Amino acid sequence: MEKETLIDDALKAELSALYQAWDRHYHNLAHIKAMLGLAQEYRGLLDDPGAVEAAIWFHDAIYDSRAKDNETKSAALAKEKLAGRVDPHRLARIAAMINATATHQLPPFRDEDALNDAALLLDMDLAILGAEPAVFDAYEKAVRLEYGWVEEPMWRAGRAVVLKSFLARPHIFYTTEFRDRFEAHARKNLGRSLHALQDQP
């Protein structure tokens, strides 16, 4: 697969500015750089590294914790900014991967290679769940700050639902590589976080 980047320096600067907004405590440039690092580490497993890199750059480009359509808007922005740089089929694949980060369910790709790329992208996005406890705790605090407008009882109830939904899955991660590396840690972190949420008065 070709090694060209779809995200040139001008587009990187434009997207970086979005990720550096004052109200982004977790969904910021550090999150994007962490995912890009994982994409580089697992590059040999990717069918279309350029498309995955583009999906990483755009997947949280639009982020408003009060909104329900962030991923849809981020995918639309990708289509707008990448139009003319990439063929329509490849662009649709990028947009589908971005949209998949809303629910962390695999997109309905028939192409096995595209499906594998989407699985790896979703696993990279959730790798933080399997981080060392201190790093995971910092992530939890950062997400809470992004939802600072939500009152504490509502936050605890809503967050518990999210954590339980991940714990209820047969596997949090889609790929063997990420399961082997992160699954056990992720389940411990999520269980600990859920216990803390439910322990509070």
Outline of the structure:
The chain is built from 9 helices and no strands. The chain is mostly helical. The protein is globular, with a radius of gyration of 17 Å.
Describe the structure.
It is built from nine helices and no strands. The protein is an all-alpha fold and 201 residues long. The protein has two domains: 9-128, Hypothetical protein af1432, CATH 1.10.3210; 131-199. The mean pLDDT is 95.
Q: Which stretches of 5+ consecutive residues score pLDDT under 50?
A: none
Structural class: mainly alpha
Count of spatially separate domains: 2
In the CATH hierarchy, what is the class of the largest domain? Mainly Alpha
Number of strands: 0
Mean residue pLDDT = 95
CATH superfamily descriptor of the largest domain: Hypothetical protein af1432
Tell me the strand percentage band. under 5%
Q: Helix content range of the residues, please?
A: 55-70%
Shape: globular
CATH domain fold name of the largest domain:
Hypothetical protein af1432
Strand/helix succession = HHHHHHHHH
Alpha-carbon distance between the two ends: 54 Å
State the major sheet: none
Tally of individual helices: 9
CATH architecture of the largest domain: Orthogonal Bundle
Using only CA atoms, what is the Rg? 17 Å
Annotate the secondary structure layout.
Layout: H1 9-19, H2 29-41, H3 49-58, H4 70-82, H5 88-100, H6 112-126, H7 133-146, H8 152-167, H9 176-199
